[in-house]
Amino acid sequence: VSAMDEQFQAAAPEPGAPCADDGMTWWYRWLCRMAGVAGGLSCAFAGLWSCVTINPLNIAAGVWMMLNAFILFLCEAPFCCQFIEFANAVSARADKLRPWQKAAFYCGMAVFPVVLSLTLTTLFGNAIAFATGVLYGLSALGKKGDAISYARIHQQQKQMDEEKLMGALEGQ
């Protein structure tokens, strides 16, 4: 079995694995992926710019931002990392994560360089990567309900409140 066959087998969903249907629509999934790629680009350029200094904290934040860019590309766009043998396997494993797990990982990964060195470069460079985490976090909240079901719930609560009020008034 060649290395390419192993990658395709690792990227293929397993029969017992949880399905990728996490309630996200196809366009929202692509929006999250595009935001991840844009976040990777912004982290890479801002990280490189941040490394052009003599301040060691800025250099450390810049290196971390370039690492963030690599991880974002690896998880969200493995076709950008075709020269890496395990890119498809990492992407398949990242696709199995729940949206809230991706949200926590991406937001935490984007906040660290800002905490390390609070500059405009680190702030703006990590903003799109953080926004990617926010998009995944919003998808973890689930779909919004329709107006009819909310109206029914509101009507039932209103009737229950009126019955309680009437019971309290009759008891006096």
TrEMBL record:
Topology term for the membrane: Multi-pass membrane protein
One Pfam family it belongs to: Cg6151-P
GO biological process: vesicle-mediated transport
Keyword Transmembrane helix recorded: yes
Primary location recorded for the protein, binned into one broad class: membrane
Superkingdom of origin: Eukaryota
InterPro entries assigned to the protein according to its UniProt record, in alphabetical order: TVP18/Ca-channel_flower
Annotated localization: Endomembrane system
GO cellular component, one term: membrane
Transmembrane helix is among the record's keywords: yes
Segments traversing the membrane: 30-49, 61-84, 105-136
Keywords: Membrane, Transmembrane, Transmembrane helix
Family membership noted in the UniProt record: Belongs to the calcium channel flower family.
Name of the protein: FLOWR protein
Native source species: Probosciger aterrimus (Palm cockatoo)
Recorded name of the encoding gene: Cacfd1
